[in-house]
Amino acid sequence: MKFFIDTADKNKIMDLIPTGMIDGVTTNPSLIMKQGDDMATTIKGICNIQNGPVSAEVTAIDYAHMVEEGQYLASLADNVVVKVPLTVDGLKACKTLRHLKIDVNVTLCFSVAQALLAAKADATYISPFVGRLDDTGENGMVLIADIVKMYGLHGFHTEVLVASIRTTKHVELAALLGADVCTIPPKILLELYEHPLTGKGLDAFLADWANTGQSILPQGHRGMRDDSKLVLGPDDGSFAI
Ligand code: E4P
């Protein structure tokens, strides 16, 4: 399962790239507003710092202008994915943009019927919003289970991109249900690393180790370590020294 990061904040993305966990980025007009820069500068900036897909959303609501905006957004960088809302015009625009070989993320999906329409419009990604469904008293993860099942039954290639993630539980369930992608706010991504027993166990190991007075590296050991050369591989997240 891929991890996209759900933010338009370039600094937050740069902080997380060294984890090797980031496969792409999603933005929306609200995130762009929060970040403060204009759309083109923000999207180009994000595309410059990582090669994964970057979703940039159209703001027109009629078909012709959506296609025009989508083509413009796609021209900003090779890894832009155009985001369109799940409306009649949005799905018409999706089909046209896909004919033009542009990747499309269909957003604001809240039902299996909508996900079915997006797959028929050849969407690259469908974004069901689990947190916002939970807010209404429904269970957003049930929708993910249903869409994954329905796409599997029909052999659709549209990837299920779980959006509006609010908790680490959403990510765990998305993985268990076979979703293709989770788009995760930076704070939740960092919470995925945490478990109280990990911290407690590490503290105990380090205290016992200190009591031994040992050091793993022998005195005078000349290692190969050179921090200036310790970098993350550009694509596979592997370390190279
Ligand atoms: C991402 O593509 C969505 O726009 C985002 O996950 C929505 O999240 P929110 O419901 O927390 O605003």
Structural overview:
The protein has eleven helices and ten strands. The protein has helices at residues 10-16, 29-35, 39-49, 63-75, 88-99, 112-120, 130-135, 140-154, 168-177, 186-191, 196-212; strands spanning 2-6, 24-26, 54-57, 80-85, 104-109, 125-128, 159-162, 181-184, 231-232, 239-240. The strands form two sheets. An eight-stranded parallel β-barrel has the order 1-2-3-4-5-6-7-8, surrounded by six helices. Helix 6 (112-120) packs parallel to helix 8 (140-154) and helix 8 packs parallel to helix 9. Mean pLDDT is 94; it is low at 237-241. The site of erythose-4-phosphate has 11 residues, from helix 7.
Percent helix: 40-55%
- The total beta strand count reads 10
What best-fitting shape do the alpha-carbon axes yield?
globular
Helix tally? 11
Mean pLDDT: 94
Outline the low-pLDDT stretches. 237-241
Write out the distinct hetero groups bound to the structure: erythose-4-phosphate
Biggest sheet layout: 8 strands, parallel, barrel
Quote the distance from N terminus to C terminus.
Answer: 27 Å
Oligomeric state of shown chains: single chain
Helix-strand pattern, N to C? EHEHHEHEHEHEHHEHEHHEE
Proportion in β-strands: 15-25%
Kindly provide the radius of gyration, computed on alpha-carbon positions and rounded to a whole number of angstroms.
21 Å
Walk across the major sheet and give the strand order.
Answer: 1-2-3-4-5-6-7-8
Give a short overview.
With 241 residues, this protein is of the alpha/beta class. The protein is built from eleven helices and ten strands. The strands form two sheets. The protein has an eight-stranded parallel β-barrel with strand order 1-2-3-4-5-6-7-8, surrounded by six helices. Strands 9-10 form a two-stranded antiparallel sheet.
